[in-house]
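Subject: mismatched residue count in predicted assembly?

I count 1716 residues in my input, but I want to confirm that the predicted structure covers every chain. Input:
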Amino acid sequence: MQRIALRRMLEQFYMEDIGSGDLSAQLMSDVGERQAVIHAKQSGIVAGMDIIREAFALLDQEIRVSLLKKDGDAVTQGETLAILTGKASTLLTGERVVLNLLQRMSGIATATRQAIETLNDSSIRVCDTRKTTPGLRMLEKYAVTAGGGYNHRFGLYDGIMIKDNHIAAEGSITAAVAKARQQMGHMVKIEVEIEDEEQLHEAIAADADIIMFDNCGPETVRRFAQITPPHIITEASGGINMQTLADYAGTGVHYLSLGFLTHSVTSLDISMDIRFADELGPTSER
Amino acid sequence: MQRIALRRMLEQFYMEDIGSGDLSAQLMSDVGERQAVIHAKQSGIVAGMDIIREAFALLDQEIRVSLLKKDGDAVTQGETLAILTGKASTLLTGERVVLNLLQRMSGIATATRQAIETLNDSSIRVCDTRKTTPGLRMLEKYAVTAGGGYNHRFGLYDGIMIKDNHIAAEGSITAAVAKARQQMGHMVKIEVEIEDEEQLHEAIAADADIIMFDNCGPETVRRFAQITPPHIITEASGGINMQTLADYAGTGVHYLSLGFLTHSVTSLDISMDIRFADELGPTSER
Amino acid sequence: MQRIALRRMLEQFYMEDIGSGDLSAQLMSDVGERQAVIHAKQSGIVAGMDIIREAFALLDQEIRVSLLKKDGDAVTQGETLAILTGKASTLLTGERVVLNLLQRMSGIATATRQAIETLNDSSIRVCDTRKTTPGLRMLEKYAVTAGGGYNHRFGLYDGIMIKDNHIAAEGSITAAVAKARQQMGHMVKIEVEIEDEEQLHEAIAADADIIMFDNCGPETVRRFAQITPPHIITEASGGINMQTLADYAGTGVHYLSLGFLTHSVTSLDISMDIRFADELGPTSER
Amino acid sequence: MQRIALRRMLEQFYMEDIGSGDLSAQLMSDVGERQAVIHAKQSGIVAGMDIIREAFALLDQEIRVSLLKKDGDAVTQGETLAILTGKASTLLTGERVVLNLLQRMSGIATATRQAIETLNDSSIRVCDTRKTTPGLRMLEKYAVTAGGGYNHRFGLYDGIMIKDNHIAAEGSITAAVAKARQQMGHMVKIEVEIEDEEQLHEAIAADADIIMFDNCGPETVRRFAQITPPHIITEASGGINMQTLADYAGTGVHYLSLGFLTHSVTSLDISMDIRFADELGPTSER
Amino acid sequence: MQRIALRRMLEQFYMEDIGSGDLSAQLMSDVGERQAVIHAKQSGIVAGMDIIREAFALLDQEIRVSLLKKDGDAVTQGETLAILTGKASTLLTGERVVLNLLQRMSGIATATRQAIETLNDSSIRVCDTRKTTPGLRMLEKYAVTAGGGYNHRFGLYDGIMIKDNHIAAEGSITAAVAKARQQMGHMVKIEVEIEDEEQLHEAIAADADIIMFDNCGPETVRRFAQITPPHIITEASGGINMQTLADYAGTGVHYLSLGFLTHSVTSLDISMDIRFADELGPTSER
Amino acid sequence: MQRIALRRMLEQFYMEDIGSGDLSAQLMSDVGERQAVIHAKQSGIVAGMDIIREAFALLDQEIRVSLLKKDGDAVTQGETLAILTGKASTLLTGERVVLNLLQRMSGIATATRQAIETLNDSSIRVCDTRKTTPGLRMLEKYAVTAGGGYNHRFGLYDGIMIKDNHIAAEGSITAAVAKARQQMGHMVKIEVEIEDEEQLHEAIAADADIIMFDNCGPETVRRFAQITPPHIITEASGGINMQTLADYAGTGVHYLSLGFLTHSVTSLDISMDIRFADELGPTSER
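Triage response: the counts match. Full output below for your records.
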């Protein structure tokens, strides 16, 4: 992950949570060093481990962080992800932001992995959309890759999507693609969203880089994928959920883009326990 | 909602999505004015309507926005939430950030309303936690209230929570509450998290403002609520989900704080369609 | 103090003072290491000692800082607060921002301590208001606590104050408090500002958490405090200054909130001297 | 005042005060338009009137502001400074930041005017120092000019001050001034701080642009001013307060720089009252 | 251009130039409205016209701006680009930032147009690089398109460039491209930089999207372009300047990327004159 | 250079270039440590060496930087400026921003040195203008001094320039200078721009600190410089370029301000090569 961007985000998130100060931490007598153990309370895929280190470093450079898992690792309930050692009050102050991010990102990675397994067709790639949480796109798209998925464009700035309104404005897919080729440089991919076979043929003739089958059921996707020449990448999107995903196996489409990976996240349950030094027996073996 | 904060957030979110420019919008021929209709594709509770106006105003002050619903309104599938009129390319550029926020906030409002209805005990209030999406706390906590719920503290800065680690550090609940009373001003509420009856009695004796029953089942909650004198507010938290919620009806506790309202959001499906001027007949009736 | 917030403030303050560069420091030949001694030129209470370390760390991580006093300590004229060692030009560049903050915060802490001593009634707490310098609220409220005072709410976001305009809008204190109880969660304290005995009785009946006697003289405060039941916290505010403060001793009110602590600050005179290494004899004894 | 800078400051100050939202304003029923009257509760010089308009415009562009005084005007107790008309809750939300700034700036302008009158020698100018509140330098230096004073340098970036440490590093005043002339461009003034007559003669010989007599009493200032040739500007600083100021009349020095104008501010008492429409009779005559 | 980003940049640039205030403008008596005429003192291509309107709107919403040229227009010496009407002091305060940007962007557009004309081969596109001025990439890349050129990738985030170090790390071009295809989603173009024919054949076999001939002379470029199959885009870069550009005509390469367009800019001479109202006769004809 | 400002700028520039992440670096297998050698591909004057250390420290605190040249040093083609050791992918990610700044600043330093040598009159100083790249003024003005030139004012805030519009507004140069002296403090220099001899005499009589001869040829400059008494600093500006510069030698003017130093920069060609450890033989000798 991009560290300058990550540091800025974490600073902003701590400003949101701590504001003018952690009142409860101010109360707390200094009780020396503690160990905080971050562990999974649910099985899943973890994502965002680097955040633990960067986040606590912003609060207190004396906190020592030992990461026992890496992004993309499958963890089972009860497994330890990381051990932190340092001042007890800082561990408590920093906990919530770290868990909120880690749980959310791991939830996305877990859903992505689950989608891939549900689909069960390694020739089809699962990817994300722009339906991410505003402010967290970098983190959420990273979590999709940690789960084994792929990233669609990051924003409006790094790829062309020609949709119905663009087609209407230019008069035809042919005209819209020609205009894009005429105006855009060679680093920009041009994707056309189509809704029916007539549009598909037009998009193929226009030689779009990518054709997206919008809101087509699995059978139509299969047929459209067969019609499309192999040098054009195909993508299906719209109305695909964890229940219908398996129906797209074997359709031959290259990509399935799934909004639910990021717009409706179920956090992975991860928590942090703080222990006294003399309770650390088992941990010290790790 | 706080407008200066909202404007800053929206600016940041558009910077994330548009970056150096909307490549697809740059392609688009100017086709005059269009109407964009934002409508619900699912029934639920809407939240975040003001965002529509503020967001598009950042992009283009010529966009006219007509809001047909207000926050907290129940909408049914197909209902129109807002109508926007303006330059087609701006409507397309601004769409995603607005929908991402509106769907997420309406998802939270809907879940909150559903929780309240599931609980079906108007003497118990449903409230949120600090398990919100980093960067969106103001918006997510607002969405909880739009759904009929209440806000717990906003951050570490506006309320004291005395938990196990604080108790351990000070030696006892009694000592921890006394210290809080000694150090904190009169605008700060002091909440104590307890896990068993012994702790409950100690918290009552210490005269905490609020006592939270942590991870206790409904029967324990009922018993603890009866034990606690009426001038102390009671709260149950931990392990309560949409399935177990109804079990807490009639327990007499004052608040149930529910992390899932914000940590695991299912977006409400809301979309935006753009229409040509001559398609606008039926809209004008609304 | 919240370190992320503090660092951001210090960065902003140095940008204001140094701008595109310290012209005088650029002139200066490198003369090796120097010691800078920060000492009090007046007796008082110090506040803001951590700022010394954080501020110079932003400019040059080689500066070594030794703090000889801690926040809340009483110092007498001539006493050394801190000794810094490092590059002479950096010590000069960093001096003014540190002293401006330290003097101002120590001025507030000193005034707070003086107010407490003047009042001479340990059953009454002295607290601040929102009449702080814009941009410095966190620091100024911290300084009040360093002087032995208490913090009223930090902003409009962490406590309810029902004043005349709210009462007029809702029709009565009773209605306004009921509405606040209805809409606000359990972490929010509700304070009602009253001006006469009729209002006091209404506020008591409404069971406000805190009742503030606005602009009442000491005799009225004493009478109102006696009328108010003990479970409601009382506060007097308005028109109390260092001259009239002692008159409130023995009134039985719980809090006196004093705007002058922060709106009219007399800095504590603190200065920094830079010495050559061979002049350091007496310092090494400290 | 620089409007972009002012707007940024006001945004920051409102974020500090309002945070995630004004809880009390959220409670308030909409009661239609109100008038808010800002008036002086004390006689003095006002400064910062433009802030009223800019600040409320950030919160609500429907607020109408009518300014009855301009910066530098003398006001007497009870005089109205401005009348605002708009939504009652916005008027309440915006009040504190505006008053905190206006009171502080007017306090500085008033102290400046008072210093000038106390000095009672129109041939000597009163100016400020860098002992301003961090974050508010632009506003506080502006307030000094509103009171009739002058600005010393704005920061370390727009003028050279050669002090004892610079002299020690370069070996002599002569060497330090020569180096400054050699290295600095023609837009930079070079001021030398001197402590005794020997240094004064050296600074004159070095042809400093400005010579500052540091911590010299009035008699010494008079003598040094006579010694200094007229084309060199003279300044006295250090240890001058409202009590000793008059002693410097007739000394012939050009500038007195007074740290207390900004480091120890007594706010001018200014308040805002909100009135119902039918109470507005007398106001409409103004 | 992206308006939110542009506004943020302009705010930053005015903060840099105006700082705490325009001293000269503060001096100036109010002389009523003036017209400012921005005109070319040199022939060339203009770029950045929208900046004029956005920039002055930040300073004063009363300034009226009439744009007589649009981006990409060729202008000749003496032609008027825009006429502004408003307060004289604001026109002066805002002038320098606007001209600095307009001159620089027009210089880039002019150089781009000149490069295209010098090359004189409409089958080859001229594009930019990442050798832009830090902080101005959006504006400079926009200026290249205004001059008729194309944009290469905007940053490290929106396209893959496989260079010698990547090849060395992965062992071969084949391995590096395969890894990129394996890890990257379908919106990302993969460009391989090659230095000799052996590498070219490997890049073709690996089916790179784009092959860049690095530092090859025109003859080698011609040969490599012939070897490369037509579905792969070719680009030449390195060591091409205005003198050697024409040698690349007819080579059959698709793109020439030219660092000098942005790393070594000669501003187009544009200036602003302010006139009194009675001098405005001839302008009204324009 | 001011380090806090520099760090903020570098963070912004890396955000611009890296955005959500360096896609090519993400691909790259970890190949252990590498050395990156920054060397000149052209002779010239270097400026901005400190940027190398600060920039890479933002990305990775493990990068070790050894600087072999210092700002203002003349380098010849092929000379090594700095050697960096660290993770290969970080070296690649950080390269472009550093080179873009270093090349541009060294281009400015080189042009400045060349201007001084072309002028060949050590009694005349070469200085810059406000025609700098928006956002980079601090860096570009620093580069001018590294090349041996001087800085004119940094912005509108640190010096008065009385130009034709100010003169027209006040009625005369005499009135404008008198007003400036009346209103401005003693740290502000007052420069008057004149166009003919009549204005020159008026500016001399008004005792301006600096008189600028605007757009006068060398003969006029010589004559005006002789007329002006020696205690007033003289400056010539307007229409002076590398071709006409030598004509101003011997004119007796004190300063020549040259817009082209910063508005039309030719970068100095500097590049960075990354080497394997076993290729490091010759470097280790340095």
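Residues 88-119 of chain E form the longest helix (32 residues). Marking this ticket as 'not a bug'.
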